[in-house]
């Protein structure tokens, strides 16, 4: 029987990979069932609905990003509190966080459902694509509180020393989503309504199952109890998790910018090509995000316990893991550009050619992306939300938005695809500078 891994353990490579692997697989699986959504919409509903889903998705990601903020910020504060030896306080912060997520989810969902049509028009949707955006978005928004809970629990199950629970829940939710895709679109032919219903059902299960688990007596380090209002703790959670909120909002804003630029330079085909690349991109980046999510509570715990030696060890080992993964990811993506693109847009030769060309350029970004993703999560785990938010802000909102607006003026359509590569490289430079300047304060080397 394998030893149960605890946050307080010393992590050599094998233990580190064992502990973070469920989180990595959880993020990969979440991305895969998003890819399956795209596959079914593109192949069974059509090019315009596929473009519509990709067009409205950035907004849906923005409103769901509150869950990432609560999850990452809450995980860091709760794990640090555990490391300081105050388990009872950690339980109360955990409970307050869950109830706050539910309330926020319902409020944001109602407002978004009411104003979705004017929002879609403002973003540039029109005609048939506008109608598809509104139908798809409103159905998805009904499940928003549960999606936010799923995002929160994806971090907190690791803090509770139950990373495998998160993986199991994600697999169950994902299977429901994928079976729903097949039934609602391929068999019942419900079109974009079927796509939205399949996603919503999966999200509801993903939020409700862990809620039930933590509401009952369980074998983890956390359980839902009667919360105490602690405005200071909530502010710390929101401040510290602001980098994850910033990252998700930034990615969504960037997605809108990409769509606008692609409509200008390549039309609807450009949006469809970008949508295909994004589905594959989500899977690859999920490896980095999953690793960062899995290791973050360990960093927070040892920071709370003032174990500088272990912090140094975690940083060095993580650097090796990320660099090896980045090289492997780049090589794989270059080799698989054609088969991956064919799975989504093989029915249209012109669109396929554009997508393959774009993806071979875009793949260069995988060499750099892992460093800044880990760097941002590392500072969140150290409860330094400001530095983490700055890395996220500069990486996406500043570097990438500037690149996607400027480079097409020089290189045309190719400038749009190269913009992510330039932005990720600049983000690595910034991340390394922060690591150097902050090391004395936190003592990680």
Account of the protein in words:
With 445 residues, this protein is mostly helical. It is built from 15 helices and no strands. It is globular and about 60 Å long. The relative contact order is 0.13. The mean pLDDT is 89.
SSE layout and pairing:
Blueprint: H1 13-45, H2 47-83, H3 87-123, H4 127-142, H5 144-159, H6 163-187, H7 191-215, H8 231-240, H9 242-265, H10 267-304, H11 308-345, H12 349-362, H13 366-381, H14 385-411, H15 413-442
Helix pairs in contact: 1-2, 1-6, 1-7, 1-10, 1-11, 2-3, 2-4, 2-5, 2-8, 2-9, 2-10, 3-4, 3-5, 4-7, 5-6, 5-7, 5-10, 6-7, 9-10, 9-14, 10-11, 10-12, 10-13, 11-12, 11-13, 12-15, 13-14, 13-15, 14-15
Mean pLDDT: 89
Order of helices and strands: HHHHHHHHHHHHHHH
Count of helical stretches: 15
Number of strands: 0
The total tally of domains equals 1
How large, in whole angstroms, is the Cα Rg?
21 Å
List keywords for this structure.
445 residues; mainly alpha; globular
Summarize this, please?
By secondary structure, the protein is mainly alpha-helical. The protein is built from 15 helices and no strands.
